[in-house]
Amino acid sequence: MPRPHGFHWTEHADGTVVIVHQGRPAGTLRGGRARRFLTEVTAGDAQLVMARWTGAYRHGNERTARDHPRNRNRGR
Fold first, then answer.
1. What is the pLDDT of residues 7-25, one digit of tens each?
2. For residues 65 and 71, is the Cβ–Cβ distance under 8 A?
């Protein structure tokens, strides 16, 4: 699976953190969640952390799941 890319974040004066993916807002964090995010993003791989916090890390595996034997007869 390819590594996440295209994320960046901005911290506002009120402590709000806005995460953007390829120019589009992907998430807004406030309060304790924003503080936890800032701690985590500065300590690790920023792109991976932002993908995980926004839920975008899941994209790319839909085809694999669709072709799994358990799911082959669903929705087609």
1. 999 999 999 999 998 899 9
2. yes
Strand partners, 1: none
- In tens, the pLDDT along 45-75 reads 999 899 889 886 655 555 666 677 777 776 6
**CB count, 10 Å around CB of 23?**
7
Rounded CA-CA distance 73/17 in Å is 42
Pairwise CA distance, residues 32 & 16, whole Å: 10
d(C-alpha 25, C-alpha 10), whole Å:
11
What is the distance between the alpha carbons of residues 2 and 40, in angstroms, rounded to a whole number? 21
Q: In the block, which residue shows the tokens 């009120």?
A: 14
Distance of alpha carbon 21 from alpha carbon 64, whole angstroms: 24
Q: Check residue 69 and give left, alpha or beta (phi > 0: left; psi -120 to 50: alpha).
A: alpha
